[in-house]
Amino acid sequence: MLKTYNEKRENIKEEVLFIGNNVVDALESSLKILKSDDISALKEIDLSVKKLSNKSNEIDNLIVTTLALYSPEAKDLREMVSYLKITNELIRAASNVKGFIKIFRKAFSEDLNTNTILEFTIPLHKSALLSLRTAISMLDEENDSHTEEKYHRVIVEESKAADLYAMVEKNILKLISKNLELSKEYFDTLSSLRRLERTADRASSIASLALFAHVGGDIMQS
User: Which Pfam families match (predicted)?
Assistant: First the structure.
């Protein structure tokens, strides 16, 4: 019975990582495109939130079935509960990434002050990517001290993303006041960047849940 439970546990973890890696891959691809200054190429990124949501539902059903069939010990139970919540956070992250890619591509144009926008967008994107990639890597971490180190790394990047968003918001609002005819494009750009900042928030929640799975305590989510 133990062998069967461990097999299901590994399967669940792999499926959760599959969702997470899909979102990270989309972030990595969009960052490369931003750096190449070929914004139109964002349309080539394939990130289906619907497919990932279906996968998330399958994982949740598998978790519930596993909990019903077995009586996992405290640490394993924490892990299963964490996965139930992490799948939801990953779908929210996927939705934010999808929203960023779609809205930013449509709003961004040479009519805008592209240098100012990209000056903050690229480091904000890097923080969102690093925070989410690190949070997901915690799911495959066996060492508790390394898990805690990665958790603090995620929190630092999430805080950095919030600060960068605040700075870009201030600068874009200044640009709007000088170019009212482009206010919609600037507001849409700002809306897309807000989704990047929220992606880092979701990474923070995933990191908190992963930490809970490893060392216990309270589940703290942003």
Answer: PhoU
Query: Residue 170, class by beta-carbon neighbours within 10 Å (0-12 exposed, 13-18 middle, 19+ buried)?
Result: exposed
Instruction: Determine the straight-line distance between the first and last CA of the chain, rounded to whole angstroms.
Output: 37
3-state secondary structure of 121: helix
Concatenated DSSP letters of 156-199: HHHHHHHHHHHHHHHHHHHHHHH-GGGHHHHHHHHHHHHHHHHH
Per-residue pLDDT at 70: 80
On the question of pLDDT at 217 being above 80, the answer is no
**CATH number belonging to the domain at 2-215, selected among 3.20.20.105, 1.20.58.220, 3.40.50.300, 3.40.50.12710:** 1.20.58.220
pLDDT digits (tens, 9 = 90+) for 47-99: 999 999 999 999 999 999 888 888 777 778 888 999 999 999 999 999 999 99
- pLDDT of res. 1: 46
Least Cα distance to 158 among 216, 106, 89 occurs for 89
Identify the DSSP state of 222. -
Q: What is the largest CA-CA distance in the chain?
A: 68
Rounded CA separation 213/139 (Å): 9
Give this prediction's pTM: 0.91
